[in-house]
Automatic annotation (TrEMBL):
Family of the protein in this entry: Belongs to the beta-catenin family.
Taxonomic superkingdom: Eukaryota
Region: Disordered, residue numbers: 79-109
Name this polypeptide is given: PKP2 protein
Keyword hit for Chaperone: no
PANTHER family, A to Z: PLAKOPHILIN-2, PLAKOPHILLIN-RELATED
Species, as recorded: Myiagra hebetior
């Protein structure tokens, strides 16, 4: 567990170690099957997998990365920008949500297991069943790592979490725990998921009222609570930016007074949350059909 947080080279060596990832997954599966999701060894295993999933898409060798995705569309060679896997056109990023993804391997090995639906379901199971805060946080954090970025892998993992594995109820429950780091990581995961436009209606329906309910009435005093507040605002921004319906949902959940109060804090110490709330307000005002409701 300590070595897995030693940086890129350490992660690379551990990912390449034959049988290591498979053994960790095997142990966790056994613990869940035996109804023992709270033992220390399970926590250690999940924390290792959490660390090994950090920046996974960026750190995979390009030759390997190309082999796990179907061939991309033929695109013109101009207007190219560097991406996770070398040179990539902006058009690919814009069309990422239409990119066909490969069929999952029925028996993944090694690094392939890190983003496979089997492990995604294991994380969601641990979030729901474990009462150890570190295990919950590591499971949420692994999913947060896997859904970061703009490539096909984060998009595929996000779709698995929301649509295939029905993970939103388990994540939503973590919004209401008392442990601040668990709550912060759950919100960060939802922020990543909410960037996918095809998932926004499901996410809004399932968790938008909960996100509004945990928004503070004012900017909180601690750094971690301040970061969590900013993350909630950016998640709500993603969900409401292109949807008047979702903006109305925020309004009916009595979110507007909270967002206004957070945006009006002048202290530099809390500017991150205030800035995020201001961005959200600006976006909400773009729905001209709601102006009269806002004014009321």
């Amino acid at each position: 567990r300590n070595m897995s947080s030693a940086g890129p080279e350490g992660r690379k060596k551990m990912r390449e170690c034959e049988g290591l990832i498979d053994s960790l997954v095997y142990y966790i599966q056994g613990a869940i099957a035996d109804h023992e999701p709270n033992d220390k060894a399970t926590e250690n295993c999940v924390c290792i997998l959490h660390n090994l999933s950090y920046q996974l898409e960026i750190e995979l060798p390009e030759s390997y990365a190309q082999s796990i995705y179907m061939q991309r569309r033929n695109i013109s060679s101009n207007d190219k920008t560097p991406g996770c896997f070398g040179t990539r056109s902006r058009k690919v990023k814009e069309k990422q949500q239409d990119t066909p993804l490969p069929e999952e391997k029925s028996s993944p090995k090694g690094v392939e297991s890190l983003w496979h639906s089997t492990l995604i379901r294991i994380y969601l199971s641990l979030i729901a069943k474990s009462t150890r805060n570190y295990t919950q946080e590591a499971s949420l954090g692994a999913l947060q790592n896997l859904t970061a970025g703009t490539g096909p892998m984060p998009f595929a993992v996000a779709r698995t979490v929301v649509l295939k594995a029905n993970g939103l109820p388990s994540i939503r429950a973590m919004l209401h725990v008392s442990h601040p780091a668990v709550k912060k990581t759950a919100v960060s995961l939802l922020r990543n998921l909410s960037r996918n436009t095809s998932l926004q209606s499901d996410i809004a329906r399932e968790v938008l009222p909960d996100l509004v309910s945990i928004l503070p009435e004012f900017v909180p005093g601690s750094d971690i609570a301040c970061e969590t507040t900013a993350s909630i605002c950016y998640t709500l921004f993603n969900l409401t930016q292109g949807s008047s319906h979702n903006a109305r949902l925020l309004l009916s959940a009595h979110g507007l007074p909270k967002v206004i109060a957070i945006s009006m804090n002048d202290s530099n110490m809390f500017s991150k949350a205030s800035r995020a709330a201001s961005v959200l307000l600006y976006s909400l005002w773009s729905h001209t059909d709601l102006h009269s409701a806002y004014k009321k």
